[in-house]
Amino acid sequence: MNPLLKKQINILIVDDEKSIIDFVKMGLEAEGYTVYSAFDGMEAIEIAEKIKPQIIILDIMLPGMDGYEVCSIIKKSIKTSIIMLTARDDVDDKVRGLDIGADDYMAKPFSFKELLARINARIRSDFPKLDDMIRIGDFTLDDGAHEFIYCGEVLDLSPTQYNLLKFLLMNNGIVLSKSLILEKVWGYDFNGEENIVEVYVRYLRDKLQDKEHNLIKTVRGVGYKMVAQ
């Protein structure tokens, strides 16, 4: 996943082993997630109540308060998906965890690839709307609602303006020729002139108040480049 495509999903990792937290956090941040960490149960509950994470990766064996109790407390007040971790691949442990509200279960040691797959599965299942949301710079794309939010405001865009802005943003930082934009946004069977691209870029600049062309840059003799930071 392109690091610029920041999903609006918070993940909390709870484990008393710093090496595990560092390993998982590094991998998830590389995928574009916002990641928080806690080393014990009380800290986990405090952070969860504050940030309301969509996903919690929760170790069972924690100092003071074990993962079962943490899971039970959090599930009573927060809508979240909890993936429990244990050093033992024991059926009774799994049953107990699922009975108190855990959504999934993984035994240590685990592969990051499998953990990521389980996280993505939980997001698709429990937070389908968020799975459609992508953040790039000050833009948030909610593809499910067919909506763009820029600097906290919903943009009033026509269908073509929406598709053009989406194509520019999904290729953020890349110079795109007018012919390519025409092909991808208007389609192969469009019989109009390339200057229609210029017209719609001007519409977008007006909507974004991009008078200095700092967001949508013109690359002379080639086309346009989106620069969203």
From TrEMBL:
Q: Which SUPFAM superfamilies match?
A: C-terminal effector domain of the bipartite response regulators, CheY-like
Tell me where in this chain the PTM 4-aspartylphosphate is found.
D59
Q: Which residues form the Response regulatory domain?
A: 10-123
Q: Which PROSITE patterns match?
A: OMPR_PHOB, RESPONSE_REGULATORY
**Which sequence positions fall in the DNA-binding region?**
131-228
Q: Where is the signal peptide?
A: none
Which InterPro entries is this protein grouped with?
CheY-like_superfamily, OmpR/PhoB-type_DNA-bd, Sig_transdc_resp-reg_C-effctor, Sig_transdc_resp-reg_receiver, WalR-like, WH-like_DNA-bd_sf
Residue stretches making up the OmpR/PhoB-type domain: 131-228
Q: Name one GO biological process term.
A: regulation of DNA-templated transcription
Any one GO CC term of the record? cytosol
> What keywords are assigned to this protein?
DNA-binding, Phosphoprotein, Transcription, Transcription regulation, Two-component regulatory system
Instruction: Output one GO MF annotation.
Output: transcription cis-regulatory region binding
- Function of this protein? May play the central regulatory role in sporulation. It may be an element of the effector pathway responsible for the activation of sporulation genes in response to nutritional stress. Spo0A may act in concert with spo0H (a sigma factor) to control the expression of some genes that are critical to the sporulation process.
What name has this protein been given in UniProt? Stage 0 sporulation protein A homolog
Organism per entry:
Clostridium saccharobutylicum DSM 13864
